[in-house]
Predict the 3D structure of the following.
Amino acid sequence: MKARAARTFDPAGVVFGVFVPLAVAALGLVLAYVWSGRLPEQVATHFSGTEPDDLSNPLSNAWTLAVVIVLVGGGCSAVASLARVLLIMRRTMLIIGLTVVGMIGVLQIATLTRELDLASAQSVTIPGWAIAVGTVIGFVAGLFGASRLQDYRERVDATSPPHPDLPRCSPELPLVVYVGASRVAGLTVVVVSLAGAALTCYLSGSLWPIFLFVPLTILILSLLRFTVHIDSDGLYVSSLGMAAFDYDITEVTGASVRTVDPSKDFGGWGLRAKGRGNYAVATDAGPAAFVTFANGDRLTIGSGDAEKIAGTLNALTARTRTETVD
């Protein structure tokens, strides 16, 4: 077996997952110091409804928010910098982390702007639009950053063809299979989200909560539906157009078909990990393609087309090994 060394850190993950939260935290501190002469002695730090119910020193509050941004938002997004962590997990954590960073950062700046040249912060109201705008900015930044992440895990080439008893079928390439939530289930998620957004908008008397529910709905849908793409290069499982799993055909040692119960076998539905290197796209109960790789990874893909997925992978890998030997 031939191994290709893995990197420890993903450069894009370091930029978006570490430097961006630090930059946003630093920006809030800089603005608080620059504007300190124009801010009230006490600024709003907590709101009850839309009215402030707690005040503190502007610089102390700025440091508190900087710590929150770095520890909470940055703590989540920093996972994206670890190149050996599962790619889809790094992408998800980056999106969540930067959404938090964007929401807090924009809200902090908008609140400080409202307090400029005021004698007291008691009359300040929470800028609800800033929560919405910050959430959208953070989500978009997280989505863009996630698209720049690469899979730097260790790749090991297999040397033997799949066992002759494993299923095979004539590959019709590319083979594209959609797995996961049906359109009805996806539509149900959207309807429930819209209902929640409508209720929140009604209670708050504003439209800004819609911008909170849109990223949340997209994130939920991305974890419920996946695309399996198989061609002569390898196996590619994607969500939101980005790779959840990406294996070269040279890494596959074989694929079989088994019956799975997501709840019993993997502790739940969706993208699952059960121990190191044992992953599953467990979105359907019933037949599943069970794929093994030379580095020890195992991937279970629940699908009614499990036989076709396994047969195509075995046929391709057998042909690749034969061509290598020749």
